[in-house]
Write a structure and sequence with these properties.
It is found in: Peroxisome. Belongs to the acyl-CoA oxidase family. Keywords: FAD, Fatty acid metabolism, Flavoprotein, Lipid metabolism, Oxidoreductase, Peroxisome. Its main location: other. One of its GO terms (biological process) is long-chain fatty acid metabolic process. It is a single chain. With 664 residues, the protein is of the alpha+beta class. It has a domain of 143 residues: Butyryl-CoA Dehydrogenase, subunit A, domain 2, CATH 2.40.110.10. The protein is 53% helix and 9% strand. Strands 1, 2, 3, 5, 6 and 9 form a six-stranded mixed beta sheet that branches. A hairpin with a 2-residue loop joins strand 5 and strand 6. Helix 6 runs antiparallel to helix 7. It binds ligand LUWPKQH6 and flavin-adenine dinucleotide. The site of ligand LUWPKQH6 has 37 residues, from helix 4, helix 5, helix 6, helix 8 and helix 10.
Length: 664
């Protein structure tokens, strides 16, 4: 049967080169080729099917995780996939699994915190999957406050061993992914005690399960922590609980790049900063920013295609009703999310560069950029995941009732995504780290230390405190210099106001506690400025392809102006813009929406997602929504029988009872 493209009319209107945009989104021609090839490989392999995920029991679901992971690993070896291809394979399989923590945290932690000797011993085993590792930091009683962890690792000089122990219930490790059922080893974060002295939290490699029969080793109690939010979703992951009862490990299993314990039990600290113990979190937070663009773009792709298919009201003379995407309210909700997906893509690319740069510097013992790398990864992780979680839910609402069906793909996407606001650092806790960094920057302004990198704008603080926005007409809001000046003035004024208010308290800590809500808002303003700046810098590069740069520029303006509109309270209260200028923002936004409207299907096609990856009937590439929704409904297990299983036991007696009552 001939396939009809129900979105063909939309595609015929596109004014830019979609293939060229695909390259921009993927990062390079080669990255697009890899992505395209691997996504098709996954889509065509029945073991990677995922359409039944929301109706599987927890055990069945976990079993598919094991099957998919083992099959993926087999394919990686058979096809000799490169690291980049393997990571694409993981992405398109699209099921959280213990492998994520093994490759995403266990291995990076050994690389970042292990000595050369330790890396030589453990990495080959981990790379060949002869051991499976997880990252066990969080405890039942403490997650955000890492310094508050209670697990102890006490050195015993008699045997040259550490004794791992969980002294209280709240010291039980709780949450680590892969810990519950799959991992054989863990990187355990615990307090190091030598000679009765507590040296704070350090990392230790600990074997948990036998490599022969997978049973827990003596002294170890271990299991899964239970069902999490939503059907399917993150329940494919075995987040675990773990307790130690005086478990002994050799001394050389403490990761010793940052500090060491000698054979005699002496504690030594190298000149590497203590914060490197937190280095793996910096690495993962950076990856989470790029992941945000993927999750948001996926939801936006579904909502955009469906909004072009869906029609409500407005039929003239019996003609078709209006496509819901043509309602200005729909555009005002959807297009800023589309723009955000592109914005997070570009800031994610930049953050990856920043992380690579700081890693190279660390290897050369240059620690100067570590505080900025920490602030940027923490802040952007927080900003992008919060906006993405809200954005996915908005996309569900943009799809009306059908968005609530699991077959829309949106409920599972939302459920799997929202913990990103919590894991790798609660978003508020992370923004408070950014605000500490900002307050330090402001306090050093008079001391001759020139702010650099993402805080360089603070160097012009005197100008930023009194400058006036130059906008007279709506089109003036299209000038990058005008947008940047407004965002810089807002961020600087909010930070300076916080610093001034902090100085009114007798202690810094008291001030921080009291003003934390304002400090968080200042941190958000700073992070939004980073995203806007990096997008504008991206547009200064050569971007080939007919109309591609124009579309990206329109989206950049939508991103920035929709933020000014949303946060106009900040901009107005701090005198960065006038009420008249705020209203011109809306005029300009409407005109930008009209400019991108014919191109939105092209802009989501450029993500190059397969129907398998999208996992959504509403987001199908061909827009053939209604017949497929109808077909899908009949596949529900409830429809296996015409009369439901409980009819004779429950419904029939009720009906008969009513009949008898009625006769009475
Ligand atoms: C089948 C295919 C196979 C192939 C597969 C291939 C690839 C797969 C790859 C997979 C995917 C890749 C990656 C993804 C992996 C996983 C992601 C998915 C799931 C997520 C799993 C979740 C894991 C976790 O959640 S782990 C636990 C995370 N926990 C936290 O984040 C805790 C948050 N708390 C903290 O970070 C800290 O406690 C704190 C809040 C920062 C406070 O710390 P404290 O020491 O008390 O600090 P302060 O006193 O405030 O500060 C002291 C000083 O230090 C500075 N600081 C703080 N942190 C850092 C840091 N990280 N780096 C540098 N500096 C830091 C701070 O600013 C201060 O500085 P100052 O003294 O100058 O002011
Ligand atoms: C799906 C998932 C997977 C995870 N995987 C892992 C893993 O693999 N390994 C691992 O070690 N951990 C893992 N975690 C744990 C995760 O890292 C922690 O849950 C996270 O760091 C938040 O810590 P918490 O749970 O202690 O939250 P809490 O700190 O208890 O937060 C509770 C509330 O208190 C607020 N709050 C806390 N401190 C402050 C403060 N100083 N100022 C203002 N407000 C504050 C928070 O904003 C939040 O609203 C995972 C968690 C989840 C949900």
């Amino acid at each position: 049967m001939e396939e009809i493209d129900h979105l063909g009319h939309e595609r015929s209107k596109i004014e830019f080169d979609v293939e060229a945009m695909k390259i921009v989104w993927a990062g390079s021609q080669r990255a697009l080729e890899v992505s395209d090839r691997i996504s098709r490989l996954v889509a065509s392999d029945p073991i990677f099917r995922k359409d039944d995920r929301t109706i599987l029991s927890r055990k069945e679901l976990f079993n598919t995780t094991l099957r998919k992971s083992a099959h993926a690993w087999k394919r990686i070896i058979e096809l000799r996939l490169t690291e980049e291809e393997a990571s694409r394979l993981r992405f398109y399989i699209d099921q959280p699994a213990f492998m994520d923590l093994h490759w995403g945290m266990f291995i990076p932690a050994i690389k970042g915190q292990g000595t050369e000797e330790q890396q030589k011993k453990w990495l080959p085993l981990a790379y060949k999957m002869q051991i499976i590792g997880c990252y066990a930091q969080t405890e039942l009683g403490h997650g955000s406050n890492v310094q508050g962890l209670e697990t102890t690792a006490t050195f015993d000089p008699k045997t040259d061993e550490f004794i791992l122990h969980s002294p209280t219930l709240t010291s039980s490790k709780w949450w680590p992914g892969g810990l519950g059922k799959a991992s054989t080893h863990a990187l355990i974060y615990s307090r190091l005690i030598t000679d009765g002295q507590d040296h704070g939290v350090h990392g230790f490699i600990v074997q948990l399960r036998s490599l022969d029969d997978h049973l827990p080793l003596p002294g170890i109690t271990i299991g899964d922590i239970g069902i999490k939010f939503g059907n399917g979703a993150y329940n494919s992951m075995d987040n675990g609980v773990l307790r130690f009862d005086h478990v002994r490990i050799p001394r050389d299993q403490m990761l010793m790049r940052v500090s060491q314990v000698t054979r005699e039990g002496k504690y030594l600290q190298s000149d590497v900063p203590r914060q490197l113990v937190y280095g793996t979190m910096v690495y993962v937070r950076q990856t989470i920013v790029s992941d945000a663009s993927c999750a948001l773009s996926r939801a936006v792709c579904i909502a955009t295609r469906y909004s072009a298919v869906r029609r409500q009201f407005g039929s003239q003379d019996g003609g078709p009703e209006t496509q819901v995407i043509d309602y200005k309210t729909q555009q005002n909700r959807l297009f800023p999310l589309l723009a955000s997906a592109y914005a997070y893509r570009f800031v994610g690319e930049w953050l990856k560069w920043l992380y690579t740069d700081v890693t190279q510097r660390l290897q050369a013992n240059d620690f100067s950029t570590l505080p900025e790398a920490h602030a940027c990864t923490a802040g952007l992780k927080s900003l992008t995941t919060s906006a993405t979680a809200d954005g996915i839910e908005e996309c569900r609402k943009l799809c009306g009732g059908h968005g609530y069906l699991c077959s829309s793909g949106l409920p599972e996407l939302f459920a799997v995504y929202i913990p990103a606001c919590t894991y790798e650092g609660d978003n508020i806790v992370l923004l408070l780290q950014v605000s500490r960094f900002l307050m330090k920057t402001v306090s050093q302004l008079g001391s001759g230390i020139k702010p650099v990198g993402t805080t360089a704008y603070m160097g012009q603080v005197e100008h930023l405190m009194q400058c006036h926005c130059d906008v007279q007409r709506a089109e003036d809001w299209l000038k990058p210099s005008v947008i940047l000046a407004a965002f810089q003035a807002r961020a600087a004024r909010m930070s300076v106001a916080c610093a001034q208010n902090l100085s009114k308290f007798s202690s810094q800590e008291e001030g921080f506690a009291e003003l934390s809500a304002d400090l968080v808002e200042a941190a958000v303003a700073h992070c939004q400025l980073i995203v806007v700046t990096k997008y504008i810098e991206k547009l200064q590069q050569a971007i080939p392809g007919k109309g591609v740069k124009e579309q990206l520029a329109a989206l950049c303006n939508i991103y920035a102006l929709s933020l000014i509109h949303k946060h106009q309270g900040d901009f107005l209260a701090n005198g960065c813009i006038t009420p008249k200028q705020a209203s011109l923002v809306n005029w300009q936004l409407r005109s930008l929406y009209a400019q991108v409207r014919p191109n939105v299907i092209g802009l989501v096609d450029a993500f190059n997602y397969t129907d398998h990856y999208l996992g959504s009937i509403l987001g199908r590439y061909d827009g053939n929504v209604y017949p497929k929704l109808y077909e899908e409904a009949w596949k529900d297990p409830l429809n296996d029988s015409v009369v439901p299983d409980g009819y004779h036991e429950f419904i029939r007696p009720m009906l008969k009872q009513q009949l008898r009552t009625a006769r009475l």
